[in-house]
Amino acid sequence: MKKFMAITMTMVMMAAMVGCGSSSSASTEEAAPEAADTTTEEAAPEASGDVPVVGIAQYGEHASLDNCRIGFIAGIEEAGLVEGVDFTVDYQNAGFDDNINTQIGQSFSAKNVALMCGIATPSAAACYAAAEDKDIPVVFTAISDPEQANLTAGNITGVSDKLPVEAQLELIRTLQPDAVTIGIIYTTSEANSVSTIADYESLVADYGFELEVIGVAQQAEVLQATDTLISRGVDCISNLTDNNVVGVLASTLEKTNDAGIPVYGSEVEQVKLGCVASAGIDYLALGKQAGQMAAKILTGEASAYDMDYETVEECYTYINSEALAAMGMEIPAEVAEVAIESSEA
Predict the structure, then answer these.
(1) Across 47-56, 77-86, 308-317, least confident range
(2) Mean pLDDT (whole number) for 204-223
(3) pLDDT at residue 119 above 50?
(4) What pLDDT sits at residue 62?
(5) What mean pLDDT, rounded, does the chain reach?
(6) Residues 199 and 334 in one domain
């Protein structure tokens, strides 16, 4: 089994309370990208001997996954390859449908694409299963725990988005010094979420918190789970990168805002949507790193067999001052010094 290699985002680090942040306007602009361009590829080109086809399978459409895709293509191009000349893209979106997700991987295999990119664990797993017989390389992104997802051995590599749980807990404790209970909703079949829940369970006591966790099987159950957490009187909710949960975040926020319960996101796009704050990573940068790995495979510089998967370890502190104000929450000086304002829509 391949071991992972930890990588670090380029940024100015500060020995701050939340363990992550940014101290310059230049870093701020890079870490808080504009809203993702969700335009899909109209054409689905057939693979040919002339121009390699890169099949991109995205599990569903929400801003962080969109940013991964945009960053992935940008990463390939930054490595010197030109789309339409050195490679073409066949982008497919599963719409959070597992059957369609499986079909996408199989269609890429049938077309003999040069490389598959799986964005989110279900898509990466579907691509890997479809690619294995033909030994097509797979590069993943937006996977929190590749080892638990069994995506670390074989012709596969990529970049993990393991959440900075300890930094998130420290941020919550700083913004809510009297909070006791953190609520979390997660999908029981999503390996990323199961792994992250285990991280929370091992760390919450160190910060004086208790957890109220509700597992769901499908997206239709998320809002009911939100009502349950509200009825149990949680002091706040910490949102994961769970695809089912993120897919209905806007509706969740309507309920929690009415109840006066702050929700913490796991990356900048969730904070832009209305979460009060987040200790999270930059998903455009995450995608770019995966794209650079893909470029090495496409040019023959490296093989996915030999490339250890990488994990982005550094993170940023994002805040939505409007959402914080609506909850009657103040921004402590130590947070304000490192935080990136993300209140724009």
Answers:
(1) 47-56
(2) 97
(3) yes
(4) 87
(5) 88
(6) yes
User: pTM for this one?
Assistant: 0.81
Q: Which domain holds residue 61?
A: 32-161+281-314
Domain assignment present for residue 84? The answer is: yes
Kind and range of the H or E element at 215? Answer: strand 210-216
Same domain for 130 and 98, yes or no, is yes
> What percent of the chain has pLDDT above 90?
79
For 269, list phi and psi in degrees, rounded to 5: -65, -35
pLDDT of 313: 72
Closest CA to 183 of 161, 209, 202: 209
Read off the pLDDT of each residue in 22-42 and give the average, rounded to a whole number: 37
Rg of the chain in Å (alpha carbons):
20
How many domains does one find in the chain? 2
Let me know whether 275 and 303 are in one domain: no
Please give the average per-residue pLDDT across 286-313, as a whole number. 95
Compute CA 320 distance to the chain's CA centroid, rounded to the nearest angstrom: 19
Per-residue pLDDT at 48 exceeds 70: no
Which pLDDT score is estimated for 191? 85
Q: What is the 3-state secondary structure (H, E, C) of the chain?
A: CCCCEEECCCCCCCCCCCCCCCCCHHHHHHHCCCCCCCCCCCCCCCCCCCCCEEEEEECCCCHHHHHHHHHHHHHHHHCCCCECCCEEEEEEECCCCHHHHHHHHHHHHHCCCCEEEEECHHHHHHHHHHHHHHCCCEEEEEECCCCCCCCCCCCEEEEECCCCHHHHHHHHHHHCCCCCEEEEEEECCCHHHHHHHHHHHHHHHHHCCEEEEEEECCHHHHHHHHHHHHHCCCCEEECCCCHHHHCCHHHHHHHHHHHCCCEECCEHHHHHHCCCEEEEECHHHHHHHHHHHHHHHHCCCCCCCCCCCEEECCCEEEECHHHHHHCCCCCCHHHHCCCEECCCC
Q: Encoding tokens for residue 73?
A: 């293509």
Residue 143 near residue 158, CB atoms below 8 Å: yes
- With cut-offs at 50, 70 and 90, classify the pLDDT of residue 103: very high
At 244, which CATH number?
Answer: 3.40.50.2300
